[in-house]
Amino acid sequence: MAETPLIHHELPVADQADTARRFMLSAATEHSSVTPAAELADWLARRTVAGRARISRIPFAEATGWAFDVRSGNLAHASGRFFSVEGISVRTDRQWISSWIQPIIVQAEIGILGILVKEFDGVLHCLMQTKMEPGNVNTVQLSPTVQATRSNYLGVHRGKHVDYLDYFTGARGGRVLVDVLQSEQGAWFLHKRNRNMVVETEEDVPVGDDYRWLTFGQIKQLLQRDNVVNMDSRTVISCVPAVGFEAPDGDGTFAGSLLQSLAGNTSALHSGSDILSWLTEIRATRDLVQRRIPLNDTVQGGWYRDDVQIAHESGRYFKVVAVSVEASSREVSGWRQPLVEPNNPGLTAFLTKRVNGVLHVLMQARVDAGSLNGAELAPTVHCQPDNYAHYPERYRPSYLDYVLTVDPRRIRYDVMQSEEGGRFLHAQNRNVVIDVGDDIPVEAPYGYRWMTLNQLGVLLMHSNYLNVEARSLLACMRTLW
């Protein structure tokens, strides 16, 4: 089958400042006559029932179409598409456990995460869908208009056509508002990226049962609830520009300071060039040596395989399991596949502080096993806390203990959010935003920098600066103004 050509510069690219202004108006619009609040709640409830699926754990031997290679032990699909589970050997310059071996997902395909937007009554609305993913803790979550791997939209699974895909491949007219490649979970994927897109249309668009037009303000409200807006939606939302819009004068509140930080009409602690030089130096000087190895060889790192799982002998980190899926709401009504299952919930936290009256976020330069370009900007704290319970105190992640014991009155956002349910089983992170006040000094360790939200927004216009956990949390943080 011939591959569908993907657009890049064929559609006219929008002016950033005008786009930012229009999205900020949409974010301030929490009520819509297109999809009223009562209808939204009813639609979500009905689609959750309609999207129910039967998901069962099965032995690897029953995962039809998937098999372990006789020589390498790699777990792959018979078609050679989708993804494989292989081994990786990693060497870094960390002081504690500087090298290790682990299984990792290898998926060279670049998928599309796309939100179609249209203006109603002068306000941008996003065409969002309720989508069942086998790994979601609650099965159905709010997804982008299009959420598809290349294997999906090329029909490798012999399923139905992906709705609205033509708007993101150049087959239909439209205006590109966002178009950037961004990384996926570096701890579990090797060099994985997806194309994050927002395309505006003026056409009349037929809307299926699984889809509704929502303002950013309505999505913002849903982001205040556990496990409603999925990870793919959050990463696209984070890439929506805020650069160039005019923010009102700050009112002294956390929300007002956040809006000022987002707009960028205030000074930052570090210049943009200083931040880029700091991150480039870390990428150039920190060790990250990755070597793909046969999955069989991960036994040298303490991993074992039995009939139903690939797991670590310590009981920490994650497992690889197989599931059977029966779902009438997807392109294919039933299938079997491997999933990565974390053993414990994760924690992602932003420490925020007003420096000279301007809200800053403390970002860390983080290297993961599968990182493409070395270090990316990550949340201040980004880990599975239970994995570090046995570590000596000096080797525990910086600021972890502060986040775990902080005065609840300093917490501005605290919501559980799922990771991508197509590859991960019941993977959740506690997403936290903390206003540290005077608890944390401005002076930060070498691998950390205080940055404004505007500076992060500028970097999000380019690929591979913020990791997916930082993008997800940034989307959540935008709900606070």
Write a brief structural summary.
20% of the residues lie in helices and 32% in strands. The protein is built from eleven helices and 25 strands.
Note down, in words, how this protein is organized:
With 481 residues, the chain is of the alpha+beta class. The protein folds into 2 domains: 16-53 and 108-238, EvaA sugar 2,3-dehydratase subunit (Nucleoside Triphosphate Pyrophosphohydrolase, Alpha-Beta Complex), CATH 3.90.79.40; 254-288 and 344-480, EvaA sugar 2,3-dehydratase subunit (Nucleoside Triphosphate Pyrophosphohydrolase), CATH 3.90.79.40. It has 11 helices and 25 strands. Helix 1 (16-27) packs across helix 5, helix 6 (231-238) crosses helix 11 (468-477) and helix 7 (254-263) runs parallel beside helix 10 (453-459). The chain is globular and about 65 Å long. This is dTDP-4-dehydro-6-deoxy-alpha-D-glucopyranose 2,3-dehydratase. Residues 38-240, 274-477 form the dTDP-4-dehydro-6-deoxy-alpha-D-glucopyranose 2,3-dehydratase domain.
In terms of topology, how is this protein built?
Elements: H1 16-27, H2 37-50, E1 54-58, E2 66-68, E3 75-77, E4 84-92, E5 99-106, E6 111-120, E7 123-132, E8 140-143, E9 146-148, H3 150-153, H4 166-169, E10 175-183, E11 189-190, E12 193-200, E13 211-214, H5 216-222, H6 231-238, H7 254-263, H8 272-285, E14 288-293, E15 303-305, E16 310-312, E17 318-326, E18 334-342, E19 346-355, E20 358-366, E21 376-378, E22 381-383, H9 400-405, E23 411-418, E24 428-435, E25 448-451, H10 453-459, H11 468-477
Parallel strand pairs: 5-11, 6-12, 19-24
Antiparallel strand pairs: 1-17, 2-3, 3-4, 4-5, 4-14, 6-7, 6-9, 7-8, 7-13, 10-12, 15-16, 17-18, 19-20, 19-22, 20-21, 20-25, 23-24
Helix pairs in contact: 1-5, 6-11, 7-10
Organism: Kibdelosporangium persicum
InterPro entries: EvaA-like, EvaA-like_sf
Protein name: dTDP-4-dehydro-6-deoxy-alpha-D-glucopyranose 2,3-dehydratase
